[in-house]
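Q: How would the structure tokens look for this protein?
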Amino acid sequence: MLRSTYIFFICFLLTSPYSLIKATLNNLTLPHQHPDPEAVVQDVQSSVNVSLSRRQMLSLEEKDQQQCLTGNPIDDCWRCDPNWQNNRQRLADCGIGFGRNSLGGKGGRIYTVTDSSDRDASNPVPGTLRHAVIQDEPLWIVFSADMSIKLQHELIFNSYKTVDGRGVNVHITGNGCITLQYVSNIIIHSIHVHHCKPSGNTMVRSSPTHVGFRGRSDGDGISIFSARQIWIDHCALSYCTDGLIDAIMGSTAITISNNYFSHHDEVMLLGHNDAMTLDTGMQVTIAFNHFGEALVQRMPRCRRGYIHVVNNDFTQWEMYAIGGSANPTINSQGNRYTAPSDDNAKEVTKRVDTEEGEWNDWNWRTEGDVMVNGAFFVPSGLGLSAQYAKASSVEPISAGLINQLTMNAGVIGGPRDDGETISYPGFNGGGTSTSTGTTNNGNGRSSDGDGGYLNMIFGDAAAPLAPSTTTSIFLSLFITLILYTITNHAVLLSLP
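A: Here is the predicted structure in token form.
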């Protein structure tokens, strides 16, 4: 009887730990994950309503200010100030969504980049952008003139930095581009990021006291890796080898707003792979962006997490706009989706490599979206049930106002394919923007197989995380001890 009990106990141990570990991971939350994402959604919509109401209520005597206001709460927060250049750090108070608490370099000194070179990634020269972003102290980084910065390798940021390109035209291109890894409180504003290529297998400095070997990067425009409190605003991104913006490995508290995306295949990835349970805590706001010409897919492509897509203008896509796997929550509100002419690509949504029986309870919701040229969104899951009660308590802004809310998406004063811009007091938009017109010759991927993301950041393929090695060793030792006890018990029973 005792031996049977031991054997049953061993079988229980062999089967239970993995289930317990899996259950624990499936309920994992990140330290900086917002406990009530629907409250954040409601706050975003409230801020838009307030900005629009303010614009509509201005009297004729305040006509100049009325023309300045657009109803976009981020822009209306600072752009009408004719002295904004003397109060740049006010921008840090203008964020919305999950990344709204990002401080960037607020409270730090102004660092002016005067040198566009990037000669030595391991020993950057003072006055360069690389030297600025690796410093330990909070910095608000500005530029002395128009610049085109061709990176030799990844530009690795330290925490508490704002890169502020307002008033000039700054282009970041070349090898590696921007890496936000294990950092927090980053604001990147009014920067062109394009033609980023893989690089690595070299020494790169990430702080004044640390330089380390970096494997091969993927060629993302902006790579967000285990980072939090990130805000990417009014940037223009195009022509990169891999993603324009990728956020993976438990990154959270991110806002991607007022950007202009164009000329790219796999635009935005949120979540490392289906097995990466850490990304369940990812929370991202995607607001007031223009997804422009020559885009194919992933606007974004989500794995796990909570993604709020609000008041964006999707001009076209070739395959799909919003895709996902591994049960992400997608809340689409007040967007305009313009489908391509291809009858086989009218659907906004795509459940990637997943059967309908598996995804029909995923929470994908559309509210107040406008569908153009036959576009259609396939919702699923809870819909308007309790999970969305707070979000739906504030009516989403009509997508008919999308032109107004997104008319300045991209780098301020930069070129737009539709030619629509608005002027602001004290702001001239900077210098002349240039483009090489080069097409993306990256990896040539047009499917959503996602095999390339196993080598995200460092290039070397990495398998999905397995259960803890320590746990496995402990179980092995424990089972060995039980077997030893059984054996010795049997020997003792056989003694006279």
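The CA atoms of residues 341 and 373 lie 8 Å apart.

The longest helix spans residues 469-494.

Upvote if useful.
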